[in-house]
Every structure is written in structure tokens, then in C-alpha cells.
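C-alpha cells as discussed.
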């Protein structure tokens, strides 16, 4: 990794802060640029960075060059913008036809098109997990609990559905309970998907007395892995607990966990597992 200054393009959630703090600890002097409508204002205040529209590509490049940034990382959640009302600068206008064409192929193609604009301008794009190696989920349990024999069919079933869903650019997650798919993640995100489960009839889901079902998150088969890797954190555990699931399974080495120790402790406290599965586990 270069010793130069690192640009952190910050969307929503806690991940941008973790990336910026780690960059600071390792002497990268992060230049944090917040995306309007997504970034935590407190992060911008702490790192004294600007806020830009997602369409101000030229302005972002100009600022990164001024601040001596050769590398950049996109971190945090970001929803597809309304292109009709998007604020664009000249570079954004020039790139828009290519980006719109890519958007028709799905979110992953859209992300790659945006990254290509910056790569063509000479910037090196790295992943959040390149900055935060300890965020990668490793194989096996994160806490004290592991899936039971009854949980593995649901892990394999949800993993299969998540793979198919991802290949269709729908989402990265699915929930299976006793072989029945209860939910598939789409544009609403993981937290809102989990929030739907308690509304289902008790006969097809778990209860506080008898937890059943598993949330699985994995990358899309065509995933651009420098952006938007599946991420779990404390809110994921809390949502899974409210949904009365038995656990959470994510693909080892291809997903991120924010606050690993806190996630493990919270999962242990409510009696659910968090597990990093491998290809061998699904065979």
C-alpha cells in the first residue's frame, strides 16, 4: 500500500469512520469526502472534510489531487441515485451516458462504471478490507455458538437463493427457515428485510422460545469486491434476534464484520450463532 494520503469517499453507516480511523492510525492522513444524503455529519466534522453530491465527479477528482491522494476507497452504504434530479458537474455530465448504460445492467455494473471513471483519471481504488484486514469474516464461529445439524440445510438453502438473487442483481441476502424462504433482500437492505420477519405467522418462523431459521449474506457472483461487500454488525444481530432466527451465516473471506468482538458478545448474549461458511460447508 502506498504511504501517500488516502481519500475516503464516505457513504452511510459506521464503516467509513472505521476506515478513516484506521488510515489515520497507520499514517495515511485520510481525506474524508462525504456523499450528501448518506454520510454521517459527525464524521465530516471530525475529519474536516467536504460534502459532495454523488454526481460531482470532477470536483471530487480536483479535491483529491489538491490533497495529494493517489489512492481512494469507497466505504459505506449508498443507494442508487435519482439520475433525473442528480446534481452534476462537467465531469459528471461527460460520464453520465456511460454510467446510465451501465445502470441498466444492474448495480454492480453501475459501480464498475463509476470506478472506471476514477481509474481512467489515474486513481488507484482499493477496498475497505484492504485498509481494515481485521474486518474480513474468517471461517468458523465468531462467538461461542455454531450452527446445529438442523441449521445447515437452511444455510445451504439460503446461500443458494442468495447466489441466484445476486446473479439477477436483486440483493446479497436471504432467510430460510425449515427449508422455506421467508425473505430475499432487495433494495430495502438487510435491516428492513429482518424487520419483516416478525410479521409472518408463527407457524412458519421461529419464536423467542424456539429460534429457527438463518440469515445468509454472500457477495453477488459478479460482485465488484472493492465496493459493497456484504457487511454485518450489531444492528444485524439485533434484527436477527428480534426475528427469532437461530443465526447468521456469511461467506468467509468475502464479507465484513464491523465491531467483531461486540458482535460476537451480542450474539452469545441472545443465543444466536454468527458463522463464516466456506464452499466446502455448502457441498
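Sequence:
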Amino acid at each position: 500500500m502506498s504511504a501517500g494520503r488516502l481519500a475516503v469517499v464516505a457513504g452511510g453507516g459506521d464503516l467509513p469512520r472505521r476506515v478513516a480511523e484506521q488510515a489515520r492510525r497507520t499514517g495515511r492522513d485520510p481525506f474524508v469526502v462525504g456523499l450528501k444524503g448518506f454520510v454521517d455529519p459527525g464524521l465530516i466534522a471530525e475529519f474536516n472534510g467536504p460534502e459532495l453530491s454523488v454526481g460531482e465527479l470532477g470536483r471530487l477528482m480536483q479535491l483529491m489531487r489538491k490533497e495529494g491522494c493517489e489512492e481512494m476507497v469507497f466505504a459505506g452504504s449508498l443507494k442508487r441515485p435519482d439520475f433525473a434530479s442528480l446534481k452534476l458537474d462537467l465531469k459528471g455530465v461527460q460520464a453520465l451516458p456511460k454510467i446510465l448504460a451501465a445502470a441498466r445492467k444492474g448495480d454492480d455494473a453501475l459501480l464498475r462504471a463509476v470506478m472506471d471513471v476514477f481509474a481512467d483519471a489515474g486513481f488507484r481504488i482499493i477496498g475497505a478490507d484492504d485498509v481494515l484486514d481485521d474486518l474480513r469474516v474468517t471461517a468458523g464461529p465468531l462467538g461461542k455458538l455454531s450452527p446445529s445439524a438442523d441449521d445447515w440445510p437452511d444455510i445451504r438453502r439460503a446461500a443458494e437463493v442468495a447466489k441466484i438473487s445476486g446473479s439477477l442483481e436483486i440483493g446479497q441476502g436471504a432467510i430460510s427457515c425449515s427449508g422455506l424462504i421467508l425473505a430475499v433482500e432487495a433494495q430495502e437492505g438487510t435491516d428492513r428485510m429482518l424487520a419483516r420477519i416478525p410479521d409472518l405467522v408463527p407457524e412458519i418462523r421461529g419464536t423467542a422460545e424456539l429460534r429457527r431459521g438463518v440469515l445468509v449474506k454472500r457477495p453477488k457472483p459478479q460482485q465488484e469486491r472493492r465496493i459493497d461487500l456484504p457487511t454485518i454488525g450489531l444492528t444485524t444481530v439485533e434484527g436477527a434476534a428480534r426475528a427469532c432466527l437461530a443465526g447468521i451465516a456469511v461467506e468467509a473471506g468475502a464479507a465484513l464484520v464491523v465491531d467483531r468482538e461486540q458482535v460476537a458478545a451480542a450474539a452469545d448474549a441472545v443465543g444466536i450463532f454468527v458463522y463464516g461458511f466456506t464452499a466446502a460447508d455448502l457441498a
